[in-house]
Design brief:
Keywords: Membrane, Transmembrane, Transmembrane helix
Number of domains: 1
Radius of gyration: 25 Å
Shape: elongated
Distance between the termini: 21 Å
Structural class: mainly alpha
Organism: Flavobacterium macrobrachii
Largest sheet: none
Number of strands: 0
Protein name: RDD family protein
Strand content: under 5%
Order of helices and strands: HHHHHHH
């Protein structure tokens, strides 16, 4: 952003005619920077989609589910998987349309609106993924508890626990595990998209000064 800072200083101290030229140069620079940020958001989201798809294919859970004799759960898991893919692809389409729109924008106000829309889309995307991880972990814990024969000792202990102490301990442990994983993934997304969102936010603030 050093070039932008130099232009801003020149804009503030030079003549009125030069101010108009510099304002246009600042807009062009902010537009280019914003378009580049949205392009990288699209690229990163596609790479992330490819990575998770590869992981899901490489670590096929069907055999593990069959070993637990939980075949009746497979249909629900497949439906959840298909819905998740559909939603993720919809987000990728939104990222692409945002990139196309922001690249073709020719006015300051429209660019500001495009930046806000892009930031909102990314935020919704991150919250959706965290929510899906939460749901997936809940389903995984339930399946393990109901179908994994290695947990029969724990189930017997719960059945003979009149004070429900064992259940409380298990719920607390699982809650801590889920919170830790969700925080890790939240930090992961903050690292992936946080820098680009901050750039867009800074661009929006600079555009707002120009638009005054």
């Amino acid at each position: 952003m050093e070039e932008l800072d130099l232009l801003k200083k020149a804009w503030q101290k030079d003549t009125q005619s030069f101010q108009q030229v510099t304002e246009n140069e600042i807009y062009k620079m902010l537009h280019k920077n914003s378009s580049s940020s949205v392009k990288w958001i699209l690229i990163i989201s596609i790479l992330e989609f490819v990575l998770w798809t590869f992981i899901s294919v490489f670590f096929n859970t069907d055999e593990y589910i069959k070993q637990m004799h939980a075949e009746e759960m497979m249909i629900y898991l497949k439906i959840l998987t298909y819905v998740n893919y559909a939603v993720i692809l919809w987000f990728l389409y939104c990222f692409y349309t945002n990139y196309v729109k922001i690249s073709a924008t020719t006015s300051t106000k429209q660019l500001m609106q495009d930046i806000l829309r892009t930031r909102k889309t990314v935020q919704n995307y991150v919250w959706y993924n965290l929510g899906m991880m939460f749901v997936s972990m809940i389903i995984g814990f339930i399946m393990e508890f109901l179908y994994n024969p290695q947990l029969s000792v724990i189930k017997d202990k719960i059945a003979h626990d009149e004070g429900n102490g064992t259940i409380i301990k298990i719920v607390c442990i699982l809650s801590v595990v889920m919170i830790v994983f969700l925080v890790i993934f939240w930090l992961f997304y903050k690292l992936l998209y946080g820098f680009l969102l901050r750039r867009l936010s800074n661009n929006y603030k600079e555009l707002k000064k120009i638009d005054l």
